Amino acid sequence: MVLALVPCPKSGEACFLLTERPATMNRHAGQFALPGGRLDAGETDLDAALRELREELGLDPGAANVLGRLDDFPTRSGFRMRPFVAWIEDDSALAPDPAEVAHCFRVPLSDLMQPHVPELRKASYGDHPVLSIRMDSLDDVVHAPTAAVIYQFREVALAGRSTRVSHYEQPRFAWC
Q: Which are the contacts of 135, defined by CB distance < 8 A and separation ≥ 6?
């Protein structure tokens, strides 16, 4: 998985790329996601993350533009997300694959610094709250696990805090 940072064309501020999965997908249809997927045989986690970014969005920042890695996030659907953060100076090659991406959004980092981020609500299951983030520029809500990864990025990279997120719950619709 890659949290891909790009310059916003209109404002010049940094944004990250967020996708919405097509409604026709077998798993996590219609959900917001960061580019990512399963490892192929012989791949490292970083190789897989960069391949998925190429396949889903047509972008190839190269390993030299990977800024770091966030904490693993085990999902309720049985996956382990291993997020990398990469800077892509020129995203003019952006070409979302319609089989994997219904929409691709450039979300300004300022959305993450709003006082309502994150939103936590008590879950009727598990011991921890469900984490979500209202993205003002999208006028929509992103839920964990994607929201947890984005929130940790905010805390570590933008606020300088060593916040952990793997304990946050996910809404039931994200489990399948």
A: 18, 107, 111, 141, 142
- For 161, counting Cβ atoms within 10 Å of its Cβ (0-12 exposed, 13-18 middle, 19+ buried), the class is exposed
Task: List pLDDT tens digits, range 56-106.
Answer: 999 999 999 999 999 999 888 788 899 999 999 999 999 999 999 999 999
Are 1 and 35 within 8 A, CB to CB? yes
Write out pLDDT tens, residues 137-151.
Answer: 999 999 999 999 999
**Residues 6 or more apart whose Cβ sits within 8 Å of residue 23:** 29, 30, 102
* Domains defined along the chain, listed by start: 2-175 (3.90.79.10)
Amino acid at the residue 18: L
Of 26, 30, 22, nearest to 98 by C-alpha is: 22
**What amino acid occupies position 84?**
F
